[in-house]
Structure formats: C-alpha cells, structure tokens
Amino acid sequence: MGALAVVLITFFWLAVGVVGPFVLPKRIHDRGLIRVMLVLTAVCCYMFWLVGYMCQLHPLWGPRFNPKVLVAMRREWE
C-alpha cells in the first residue's frame, strides 16, 4: 500500500510539472513565467508531501516509556 501511494503521487506531480507547461495556450503573454510557476509548484508540493510521508514511515525518535511500563508490557504481551 505504501509503495502504491508513493508511485501515484509521484506520477501526479510529475504530470503537473512536465505535462502542465506544454498544455498552456500559445496566446498567454507571460507563458514562460507560468511554466516556471507550474514546475516549481510541482517540485515544492511533491517534496513537501514526500518529506511528511517519509517522516511518518521512519520517525527519528519513537515513544519514550517509563522502565516500569516497559517491564509491564514485556510481561503482559509475552
């Protein structure tokens, strides 16, 4: 399930960043600026999502328990 989410979100933001700039109409005055905005938006949104998702998968620190709680958990769960 986790790999599917990463692949789907990656393809979505890749489409926004790569296909989006080429779909713009030719008559737009600031076409180059809008292209840069689309690419930067795609990169920033994807990185923001990826960092948040990976931090949930592999946290830097876990819960801290009192040693008495750890002994009780070990005794009850075995």
UniProtKB/TrEMBL annotation:
GO terms for molecular function: proton-transporting ATPase activity, rotational mechanism. It comes from the Eukaryota. GO terms for cellular component: endomembrane system; proton-transporting V-type ATPase, V0 domain. The keyword Transport applies. InterPro entries: ATPase_V0-cplx_e1/e2_su (IPR008389). The keyword Glycoprotein does not apply. Its main location: membrane. Pfam families: ATP_synt_H. The chain crosses the membrane at residues 6-24, 36-54. It is found in: Endomembrane system. It is a multi-pass membrane protein. Keywords: Hydrogen ion transport, Ion transport, Membrane, Transmembrane, Transmembrane helix, Transport. PANTHER family: V-TYPE PROTON ATPASE SUBUNIT, VACUOLAR ATP SYNTHASE SUBUNIT H. This is V-type proton ATPase subunit.
